[in-house]
Every structure is written in structure tokens, then in C-alpha cells.
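To make this tangible, this section ends with a sequence with its C-alpha cells:
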Amino acid sequence: MSQYDKNNFQTDNLLKEINDNLGRQIANELDKENQSEETTMEVLDSKKKKWSKKKIAGTVAGVFVAMILCVALAGNYFMNRINYESDSDVKAKVDKDGVAIDWDASNANDVVPCNDKVVNILLIGEEKIHDTTRGRSDSIMVATINQETKKLILTSFMRDCYVMIPGYKEGKLNTSYNVGGGPLLLNTIEQNFQIHIDGYVRVDFEAFETIVDKLGGVEIELTDNEARYLNRTNYISDPNNRNVVAGVQTLNGNQALGYTRVRKVAGINGEHDDFARTNRQRIVLNAIFEKYKSKGLVELVGIANDLLPYITTNISKTDLLSYLATVVSLGTTKLDTFRVPMNNCYHGEKNSAGDVLIVDYPTVNQALQEELYGTVSASTTTDSNSTADTATGNSGVQNGSN
């Protein structure tokens, strides 16, 4: 029995227990009512009382079943608002674009096998400005739900990592998305970084802005250089929003998006270039996570109803609901962050693909698997060459290319 079958089994048992408890409560209340009636209305027929008791109990049980059905239908309604796509849909688009990819050549290396207690979901932030068919994967992350360690982990993958793209050729990591969409990007990460990924979720720039605005903005701390840079460039696309200041403030969707795209100014942790940019992305996603935690259930339902149409995924409705239930069951209020490649595990190089990062895959993949599937050893988190970095930017990661 898989973990998700176990979750469903536990849910069924919980509903049965609730139903049994409700039945006992109804019976007790009815017994009390009947005892009172017997003292004041001794002329009532006992059979009539028994029939009335069964009728009331049956009515309440029917209402209870109806409530369960309403919850199930509501969940189904929400899931139907998400955009679903299959691998065959994406492959058809690739064939139409005339890109030659051997989709069967996808198992060149072994990957970590599927683990019922660990779920890895690829998060794709798509930059779709000049290309109306498929844009670039501006943000590449993996969200991990680990039921054994009770952790939620967000891992950034540097888009300039030089990788073997299955069935295609060597190139930058984000090239795999441009030529083969979510399925090929997922497969490329699996093959090069040796982790199993259960599916992907994709949002574009418009969706990102909407998500932040629906939450009422996010709290972000800007340096003086970041604020001045954002106010004088078009990273914040709406000129009316180019009024950010140094320090902690609430950024709206347009401002937060601009912040996550900045590369030419040092980040709050001193990093530069794409390293600073990916750290900003993790900072914003962590701020979104914090904002969600502050919302009430009713408000979250309304927000979810508005946001789901902006999401595209290849994960089934059943699996999505299972993953959400698992996240809730963890009870964690913290989001851990990680970055690939880590400090001192790459070097910069220029080749036919442009400026790339040549990754020390044996070292990186071992640390990545320890982080996602287990516990990172003390030696990888306490020295000056720390593999992990936090959403607040306190890391040992070097900037630029070594």
C-alpha cells in the first residue's frame, strides 16, 4: 500500500470515526429527549418514539453525507480550474516547431527511484514576452515534500548549468525547456542531477503578479542599490510602481516580479549576477509562503479560486489533492531553501552554448540527495563552503563564476 493509499485509508477511517461519534451523540441527545418526553408525555406510544428516533437519525446522517459530497465536489471544482497538459500535448508542439528530439532516449542514467515519502515537484517560472508559443524558463526550482523529515524544501537550479539534454544535445539547463517544454526540462533535471521528479507546475509573469496581488503584496527588504536600480530601469514594467525605497516594505505583484529579475546589482547577501537573482526568487517565494500562513481558511479558499486558472501542470487532480493533504499533515511553518550548484562545486566556462557553469555533478548530486531525501551532514552546513543557503541570504555561496 503506497503512502497516498494509506492517507486515503486514514481519511476513510477518520470519516467513519466522525460518523460513528456523530451517531452516538445523536443517539445520546435523542435518549435524553425521549426520557424527558416519557416523564411529561407518558401516553406516547413506544413504537412511535422508536420510529421517530430512526427517522431523525436517518435525516441527520443524510445531511452529514450531503456535507461530505459538497466538500468533495468543491475540491473537484477547484481542481477543474487548473490547466492540465499531457506530455503528448507538449511533444506535438515540439514536432510542430521542427525541433528534432528523440523522446525515447530519456533513460541514459539511473535516477533515485520514486519514494512514497518524498515528493519532488518542478516549479517553472516562464518568461513569455517575445515568444507567444513558449518562452524561457526564467525560474527553475524543485519543491520537496519530505514526510520522514517533516520538511518543505525549495531548491533553485541555476539556469546556466551545462547539462546533457536527453535526446537532444548538450546545452544550458533552460534550453531544455525552450525546445521541449516542461517534460524535457523535468527529464533533463532527473538525468543530470539524479533525483526523481513527480511532475511540474508552471506559471508565467502575469500569473506571478496576480498571485502576489491577490495576497495583498509581500514583505521584502531592499538595499539602497536595489531600490535605486529598480526605480530607474524597466524591471518594474509599470512606471507608476517605480517608487520603492530601501528597507522592509510591501511590494505589489509588478514590483515583486521586477525584484526577482534583477541580476546586475548585488543582493542583500552580497551575491552577484544570476546567483543574486535566484536568491531573490527564493526570498519572494518564502515571503509568499509566509503571507499564505497569515490568511484565514475562508480567505484562502477565495484566493485559490482566483489563482488556479493561472496554473498549468501535468500532475493529475488526484495526485495534486494528495500532495496538498500531505503538506497540511506535516504541520510545518518553515520553508527550507537550497541552491544548485553549491559553493565551490562549479566553474565558469565559455563554449558554444555561451557562458555556462560546469558542474561537479558527483559532489552536487550527493549533497542534493542528502538534502531532499535525508539530513544534510554537519560538514556541509557549518563550514565556509556551505551547500545550503537560506531565504534571508546568509550563505557561503560565492558570486559569479569561480
Remarks:
- Confidence is low (pLDDT under 50) at residues 2-27, 61-73, 376-402.
- The chain has three domains: 3-80, 87-136+158-196, 204-380.
- Residues 87-136+158-196 form one domain.
- The first strand starts at residue 83 and ends at 84.
